[in-house]
Amino acid sequence: MILYLPLARILCEVNILKNNIKVLVSILCIISSCVFTIMFMFINDNDIKTFKTITSENKKGVTLVSNNLEKEDAKKEEVSVVNEEVVTNTNNIDNTSSKTTVVEEVVEKPVIVYDGMTMDELSSKLDRVLKNELSGKGYLYASYSLEKNVDPYLAVAISLEETGCNYNCSNLVKSCNNVGGMIGTGCNGFSAWPTLDDGIRAFIDNIYRNYVAYGLTTADTMNPKYAENPMWSSNVNNYISIIKNN
């Protein structure tokens, strides 16, 4: 009995201690929960502010990138326009250079048609010996003779011999437009043409058809067939010398 009473006191004190511990643990849990809640709210508030700050920064960055891209596109368009203008100007310069080159080639390399002369030079040379009714017919004699493969000096020389136009053209030229003394009808036993140009062409056709086509290309080879006068070829050759040397 004596032992029981002290043991009972001890047990009672132990129970009180246990209850106090439980209360203390509960209080600690409540305090911990409050602290955790406060910390959580503080941390979340900072995260939200940080998120807003990052979002704002990102928006600024996107705006800057967008503006930079627009500026780059504008620069590219400007460069494209400048390049097109440069290409256009270069093409215009090339075209101008090509045209200039063509003109220079025409001037530097004239077409030689006969005896080292151009058509204009040959025409002028013949015009200097063609007088009276035959004046100014140098180009016709030059161009049509070459077309028919006839020596233009020979054609003009024969006309001068047959017409006397070096001094005064015969009535055969004035009335019948006959520049070669060709026999035919229409003009008292001689051939006649409506215009002087027609008569000159017919005369050159006659030289080609009846003489050059048979290999008779000089006054000497033509003389027996063209004229009864044996001095005819000498007279024609004299005119040829005058034409060459004028």
Strand content: under 5%
Envelope shape: rod-shaped
Mean pLDDT: 78
Radius of gyration: 61 Å
> Low-confidence parts, pLDDT < 50 over ≥5 residues?
none
Indicate the topology.
Layout lengths: L3 H105 L10 H9 L10 H10 L4 H12 L7 H6 L9 E2 L2 E2 L4 H15 L8 H8 L5 H14 L1
Antiparallel strand pairs: 1-2
Helix pairs in contact: 2-3, 3-4, 3-6, 4-8, 7-8
Written description of the protein model:
This protein is mostly helical. It folds into two domains: about 80 residues; about 130 residues, Orthogonal Bundle (Lysozyme), CATH 1.10.530. It contains eight helices and two strands. The chain has a two-stranded antiparallel ribbon. Strand 1 and strand 2 form a beta hairpin. Helix 4 packs across helix 8. The mean pLDDT is about 80.
Which tags fit this structure?
246 residues, mainly alpha, Lysozyme, 8 helices, 73% helix, rod-shaped
Q: In brief, what are we looking at here?
A:
The protein is an all-alpha fold.
